[in-house]
Design goal:
Bound molecules: zinc ion
Shape: globular
Distance between the termini: 78 Å
Oligomer: single chain
Structural class: alpha/beta
Length: 479
């Protein structure tokens, strides 16, 4: 009995020792805890000001750890030499389909919004994208499509090609427009879109009336405005009177040669306490539909002006004769002419968020679809030293998130590298990041962005787009 007891005691002690050994092995080499770890990267998070080497632990699509000590994961991506930033948020992207998403994600974009033109049917817009896209997506209810519908515009594209732009609306029609806008808000539109440049038939009183619908719904009004500096002052005054938050899209092209005056007017409104923001894209040419109201006066142009216009479908520069033919046929046109100094002045402004205004179809479009964010990081941050990395990333991530978060609570978890945030991350090489798309070939993807993570899944992996479709609807609460 005694011998047996002693033996049993020794066996027990042996087991206890083995267990201790096992435990200490675990402590020095812990079992994988995270679905994905981004290790050794230079994490830049403009929301908190963090700029340092960290390890990021991701589980269930969320960031669960931002650590100075190494972490273990089922998969570990070594981000040594890469900057790890919040995924880029593009507030102005017309290309809301697979082809455009493939280009944008290679440029580091993880959430893409169509907030300028928007849609006339928010429920249907989201329904058409259900089931997972490459990137997260969202839309505005739009004054332009509402006006086209109510006035019976013949246009088949995004923009009015006739009465929806040039016609004036009577009281019954204004009420019908308001009803469409209110319905869009009830269906979860993240903002309200306007294009007074495309609707010359809409007086400022109509724009202000629709701004009041935006104000009542608590959404920002995103506008492609008309009329240069006077137009800007009228637009800011209308938003103030209506109590609406205002976002001036592509200040670089809307201001043209009056950029400094535009930025000063926006700053003055902000300093006076008004909620006014803006955005810019880093290219000297614009693009729009050739049948739009922007070209209604084309017959009065001098001959030289036509050559500034490049037809997207063929890449050819136009003449008076070919412009007339192209306008009759429809399609998109690139408009050259702004100086590099104008573009740079917009991009370096701390007021301007970075937004692409992109669109691409069948490989043809404006290079801003594919290269906007890499071009800012490569050309203006690295090569020219015109913008700091922190400031450029701030205007690509946390600023656009904040623009929407009052209306869209989901945005409080985006644009940040912090515990609890959505795991939407862009990893890029600051030494090589650069746009490659051109006016002749907009389908060339940006370089130097090897990994893009959305909801914890790699959608760009080793520089290639994967089969993952973690992109989800970003939508305001439906009432
Ligand atoms: Zn646009």
């Amino acid at each position: 009995m005694v011998i047996r007891g002693v033996l049993l005691g020794r066996v027990h002690a042996l087991f206890a020792g083995a267990a201790a050994l096992l435990f200490s092995a675990c402590a020095s080499q812990p079992a994988p805890t995270y679905d994905l770890v981004i290790a050794n990267g230079r994490v830049i998070d403009p929301a908190s000001g963090l700029d340092g080497v960290r390890h990021i632990g991701i589980r269930g699509g969320k960031i669960e750890a931002v650590s100075t000590a190494p972490l273990a994961g089922v998969r570990v991506i070594d981000a040594f030499r890469y900057i790890v930033a919040p995924g880029f948020i593009d507030l102005h992207e017309h290309g809301q389909q697979e082809e455009a998403y493939r280009m944008m994600v290679r440029d580091g974009v993880t959430s893409a919004f169509e907030l300028e033109v928007g849609t006339g049917d928010v429920a249907r817009w989201y329904q058409a994208r259900n089931g997972g896209q490459i990137v997260n997506y969202g839309v505005a209810i739009g004054h332009i499509p509402a006006r086209m519908k109510v006035l019976g515009d013949p246009g088949q594209g995004l923009l009015p090609a006739g009465i929806g732009g040039s016609g004036s609306a009577n009281e019954t029609q204004l009420v019908a427009m308001e009803a469409i806008l209110r319905q869009g808000l009830a269906q979860g539109a993240v903002a309200m879109g306007f294009g007074s440049a495309y609707t010359p038939g809409a007086p400022m009183s109509e724009i202000e009336r629709m701004f009041r619908v935006a104000a009542a719904g608590g959404v920002s009004a995103h506008i492609h405005m008309r009329g240069g500096l006077t137009g800007l002052q009228e637009t800011i005054a209308a938003a103030k009177s209506a109590g609406a938050s205002l976002h001036i899209v592509h200040v670089n092209s809307s201001a043209d040669t009056e950029l400094e005056e535009f930025l000063a007017a926006i700053k003055a409104a902000r300093d006076a306490g008004q909620d006014v923001t803006t955005e810019a894209y880093p290219y000297g040419a614009g693009m729009t539909e050739i049948q739009s109201a922007l070209f209604d006066d084309w017959k009065t142009w001098p001959d030289a002006r036509f050559a500034l216009h490049q037809l997207v479908s063929t890449g050819e520069r136009l003449t008076r004769a070919t412009f007339g033919k192209a306008r009759a046929a429809g399609g998109t046109v690139i408009i050259h002419g702004r100086s590099e100094a104008q573009t740079r002045a917009a991009i370096v402004s701390p007021l301007a968020m970075i937004a692409s205004d992109g669109f691409i179809e069948n490989g043809r479009g404006h290079p801003r679809t594919s290269g906007t964010f890499a071009r800012v990081l490569g050309k203006y941050v690295r090569d020219e030293g015109a913008v700091t990395m922190m400031d450029a990333l701030r205007r690509m991530t946390i600023e656009p998130a904040r623009r929407l978060e009052r209306r869209v609570p989901a945005m409080t978890a985006k644009g940040r590298v912090s515990v609890g945030a959505d795991a939407d991350l862009t990893l890029f090489d600051p030494a090589t990041v650069m746009d490659r798309a051109t006016y002749e070939d907009a389908s060339l993807a940006s370089a130097g962005i090897p990994y893009v993570i959305i909801g914890g899944q790699a959608v760009v992996d080793g520089g290639q787009v994967t089969a993952a479709r973690p992109g989800r609807a970003i939508r305001a609460p439906i009432r």
